[in-house]
Amino acid sequence: MKKVAKFGGSSLADANQFKKVAAIIKEDSSRKIVVPSAPGKRFKEDIKVTDLLHNAYLAKTEKEFQELFSAIQERYNSIIDELELTISLQEEFDTIEKAFKDKIGLDYAFSRGEYLNGLVLADYLGFTFIDAKDVIFIDKDGNYDEKMTDPILSKALIQHEYVVIPGFYGSLNTQPNTIKAFSRGGSDVTGSIVAKNGHVALYENWTDVSGFLVADPRYVHNPESIGTITYKELRELSYMGASVLHENSIFPIRNEGIPINIKNTNKPTDAGTLIVESTCHKPDHVITGIAGKKGFATIMIEKDMMNSEIGFGRKVLQVLEEYQISFEHIPSGIDTMTIIVNTEDFISKEQAILSGIHRAVQPDTITLESDLALIAIVGRGMKAARGTAAKVFTALARENVNIKMIDQGSSELNIIVGVRNCYFEDALKAIYHEFIDLDA
Ligand code: ASP
Q: What is the mean pLDDT of the segment spanning 144-165?
């Protein structure tokens, strides 16, 4: 049996954390493939190595560069010294310094945190180091190129049994050897790609929390944790802001049936959350989780007799496509169509889109509003349960929260409600208490 163990930045922030990681690896010999992030924060005000690298790369003066670059070297050297390793990264630092001065690229700069941490961890564990640039290929938009990656990566994983592969980066698929990074937090995606190609039984994702919580603890006091969640549920929750795992982590393994176990490096005996394709485990509650985000805008289009105008929706959406705006939901009435979009993406293009829609479909009016928060109530248990929507609406009514939008797909996996930004927290709390506390 083989497992991938991916460790996040806080799990590898200093020598003490490295020791915890080594104990976890040694305790289970099936943990054969290790994917490290760059050293994260050691304390609240600390700066992650990835951010130090970013700032060093963009430093305006030599003095600023040297200060930041020394801080980076110091992070690694203190880990090496405290672990009493004999490895030296001096040559690597020299190469990186030169590459930074040659302005080789921001992705290269970002990725060096994982690269160096991988070298140190491989040395400490006595595992083979495989540079991600040789086995993972990423397109210009940051998506993994599976056709190019899979044969090369799976071959490397057959050749070497105990390996460390740094997370977060690979090579650009059109220019191997040019470093390309995933989006921030992308080591989770590397873990998933490696799990797929190593044909492992389990992808363990070690972090600093004991799994997913039913709701965001910033808004709900001491929420329950989730024992088992499906890929689909997780995708819905991650998309709406639940942030333990990178939202693209599911894609590489979604057709492989490999479970992901979120585990806590600081409390390794906690069960954590198991993420699976499908399960007979009955959820503890009708809903598995609640997540939400503020910052959405609505484009409300009105036109008499819209219902009989075939192609109306397509023409409107084509305008959004022209301006590269992705839509979230489209609740509609007989003579109205409302499109919900991300305000940040939309705002700089709003007037162009507005006139584009006028030209495309000649509506009577278009009204824009930008005060919407979306909340997703997600749960595989909803399918068989009656009254879930009623409970959501009762909870919101009790809190005096006005609902601006409702959306439930026929998959019955989630209900999305839109409320004004100012009601966001009250709404989350009310829904949590209705389903979890009162259900318990
Ligand atoms: N170190 C990178 C970041 O801070 C990638 C990762 O940790 O997954 O985003």
A: 97
Average pLDDT over residues 244-252: 86
Examine the fold and report which residue of 186, 208, 230 is the final residue of a domain before the chain moves on. 208
* Distance (Å, whole) CA 11 – CA 38: 9
Considering the domain architecture, whether residues 52 and 155 belong to the same structural domain is answered as: yes
Overall average pLDDT of the 14-21 stretch:
98
**Token pair listed for 2:** 């083989």
CA 62 vs CA 59, 109, 190, 268, 307: distances in Å: 7, 16, 34, 43, 64
Q: What mean pLDDT do residues 361-381 have?
A: 95
Q: Among 55, 187, 247, say which to mutate for ligand 1: greatest number of ligand atoms within 8 Å of CB.
A: 187
Decide whether any atom of ligand 1 lies within 6 Å of the 169 Cβ. no
Residues 134 and 40 in one domain: yes
Domain of 352?
A: 289-435
Q: Is the pLDDT of residue 440 over 60?
A: no
253 CA distance to ligand 1 centroid (A)? 20
H/E segment holding residue 298: strand 289-302
> 168: Cβ below 6 Å to ligand 1?
yes
Q: Do residue 162 and residue 294 come from a single domain?
A: no
Mean pLDDT value of segment 150-155: 97
pTM: 0.87
Atom 5 (ligand 1): residue with closest C-alpha?
Answer: 185
272 lines ligand 1 (CB under 6 A): no
Alpha-carbon torsion (176, 179, 184, 186), positive or negative: positive
Residue 439 has a pLDDT of 52
Least confident of 51-55, 66-70, 412-416: 412-416
CB distance 114 to 169 below 8 Å: yes
